[in-house]
Every structure is written in structure tokens, then in C-alpha cells.
Amino acid sequence: MKKLIGILLLCSVCSAAHSQTVLSLDSCRAMALRNNKELRIAREKTKSAHYERKAAFTNYLPKLSATGAYLHNNKELSLLSDDQKTTLTNMGTGLATAVPALQALGVDQLLNSLGSTVVNGLRTDTRNVYAGAVTLTQPLFMGGKIRAYNQITRYAEQLSRAQENAGTQDIILSTDEAYWQVVSLANKKRLAESFLALVKQLDSDVDKMIREGVATKADGLSVKVKVNEAEMTLTKVNDGLSLARMLLCQLCGIDDLHTPIQLADETLENLPLPTSGTDADVEMAFSNRPELISLELAHKIYRQKVNVARAEFLPSVALTGNYLITNPSVFNSFEKKFRGMWNVGVLVSVPIFHWGEGVYKVKSAKAQAEAVRYQLDEAKEKIELQVNQCAFKIDEALRKLQMTEKNMEKADENLRYANLGFKEGVIPTSNVLEAQTAWLSAQSEKIDAQIDVKLTDVYLKKALGKLGQ
Fold first, then answer.
1. Quick one: average pLDDT of 51-57?
2. CA–CA gap between residue 207 and residue 338 (Å, rounded)
3. How confident is the model at residue 81, as a pLDDT?
4. Cβ distance 185 to 246 under 8 Å?
5. Banded pLDDT at 192 (limits 50, 70, 90)
6. Mean pLDDT of the chain
7. How far apart are CA 58 and CA 137, in angstroms?
8. CATH architecture, range 20-61+142-314+351-464
9. Backbone phi, psi, residue 346, to 5°
10. pTM attached to this predicted model
11. Do residues 302 and 368 lie in contact, with contact meaning Cβ atoms separated by under 8 Å?
């Protein structure tokens, strides 16, 4: 029975270990990029810009369209007046009245019939009209508008990709910050647990010394206060770590924010230092930063908008071809049949006078392009400053890390001597507490310095436009 219980306990422990997900920084980045909804929106916008460019190219090609119409008229069109109809249908009778001899020959009836035939032949019967047309249009010259629009859509697609890249780098930055925050708090949790164990051990030793009469109750109270402070610190660290893990889960797209995750770097006592250089390569930033790429493309787009504004007031030429069909048709008098014809032609439109509207629009477009160019120049100045600041901060973080490592060595040595002196009875409790507090501070500063080195390296890569490459 005991063996069975032991096996069950071992299986439960193994199951719990396997249920905890271990994530590396790269896997967190990949999950965040795969599940981020804003990045999905950016990808769809890039697709939209791509199809807009495809659509713009079709303006070079001929367009074919068909049109159909049906019209019911209350009255039909008449080519003859009522008097003319009466005269034609009775012209034989009128002639016979003037010449009675014609009536005897029957000429009057023949002429009346002939007149009726003419009247019926000229009847339009346009109460129900059907019409249709197929039109082919080929632009020949549109003032450069089609070419400018194609350039704009191509730049717009590249701009959308640059914005998607900027969104990608922002997501990677947020993920890295959350990742290293978890690593920092996980290390501080172990540090808080170690410090709590130290002060508890000191509390136990002081209690024994109080019972033996070699320590005072004041010493015991001082140590117990430190124990309470250590417990509160551990509680705060645990709460902060839980929230940090939830934030990382949210960024990675993990639905259950309480999923037990463990990071590959949170168990390391010494994090590996970044291998990238700290040179402030401003030219690299100028060529890689998606913000600058976006502004450069925006400037090109506005320059093309100047051409579009100018093209509105230039002549345009287009070739057209049509096939028209109607019922009634008029190609063989008026017939209740569908008949058609084709034609070709050239359409020319020449703006003549618009009170200077074209000049004003061109000047407005030029002013917008200049405004974007000034934004580009300003962005370059800010990015140059940002790159230099990030390079300085990473060097500063590395120096700070070296100093904290030295301080930690001194704090370890100081704590060792304090514990040894306390056991020998030559160092009071207050000195031991001070040594433990100094050790805690040195360890915490080392953790902060390691995380600071990691984050400053991330910020430098972001400033250089290399994050995620």
C-alpha cells in the first residue's frame, strides 16, 4: 500500500512538472507576433494596400462596359402633325372632289390607301423603347495622373509594410520588457526567500540566546520586525511576479492568464551579457528605422500628389469605341427590331479657365510635401540623439553591473564575518541585521543591473531599427 501511494505521488509530481510550460525569449516573441491582434490588423492593411496598387495599374488598360435601358413613354413621338396625317389619308378624296372624273376611275381610293401607307410608315411607335451600348475606353494621355496614382499606391504599399514592421518591433519590445520583468521578479523572489530564511535563522538563534540570558528581548524584537518585513517583501514580490506572468501570458496570446509558465532565463543566477556592440551607428538607424522609412515614403507620396493636382488641369485624351443598339431602330425607317451600329472616336478635354484653382491646388500639395520633409528632418535629429543616448546607457549599465558584482562580493564577505562574529559573541545582533540588509541590497542591485543591461541592449537595437532581426 505504501509503495502504491509513493508511485501515485511520484506520478502527480511528474504530471505537475510537465504541465508547467517553459518558454524562451524567442518563443515568447514568436507567440506574441503570431497572436497580436494589432499586428493582424496591420497585415490586413498591407494586403489592402497591395490590392490597391494592383487596382491602380488597371487604369493603364482599356475598360469595357455595357449599359442597357428600357423607357416607357406616355405618348409616342410623331414625325407628322395631325393635319398632315388627315391630308395624307384623305388626299384621294380631296383630289376627287376637285376632279370628279377621278372618282369614277377609283383613283381616289388608291391615293387614300397610299396616303395611309405613308402615315403608318412614318409612325415611330416609341411608347416602349429599348436601348443598349457596349463602350470601350482606352486612356491615351491623362496629364500624368495615372502614372502618379500608380506611384502613390506603390509607395502606400511600402508605407504599410514599414508601419507593420514598426508594429512588429513595438510588440517585440513590449514582450522583451515583460519577459525580463518576470525574470527579475523570479530572481527577487528567490532572493526574498533566501533573506527570509536568513532572518528566521537569526530569529531562532536570538531566541535561544535570550533563553540563555546572553541576549535581550529588544534584540529579539528587532529581529522579529525584520522577519515581518521579509515576509511582507516576499508577499509583494509574489504578487508582482503573478501579475508580471499574467501580463506576459496576455502578450503571448495565452488565453488562460493563470497558465503556469516558467521562463528559460529565470533560473539563471548570472544572465549572459549581450554580444552586440554599443556603437552609435546613426547611419544604420537612418536606413533601418521604420519611422524614417515611413516619413520618406510619405514625402514621396505627397510629391506625387503634386503631380495629381497638376494633372487635373492638363489636357486629357482618350480613345473610345461603342456599339449601340435600339428598339425601335431607325436604320431602315422605324422598325420594331433590335438593330445597332458601331463607332470609334477620340475624346479630348482641355481645361481653359478656372480662376487659378489649379495653381492654388498645386501650391497646397507642394506645401504639404514640404511639411512632411521638415518632419523627416526633425525625426532624423531626434533619432540621432536617441541612438547616442541608448549607446551611452548600455555602457553605463555595463559599468553599473561591474560595480554591483564587486559590491556583492563585499556584502557576501561582510555577512560571513558578521555571522561568524555573532556566533562567537563578539558582534551584536544589530550588526548582523545591518550585514543581512546590505547583502539583500547588493543582491537586489545586481539583479536590477543585469536586467538593466538586457533592456538597454533591447532599447539600443530598437533605436537602430534592428530589433527582431
1. 95
2. 115
3. 80
4. no
5. very high
6. 87
7. 12
8. Up-down Bundle (1.20)
9. -125, 130
10. 0.80
11. yes
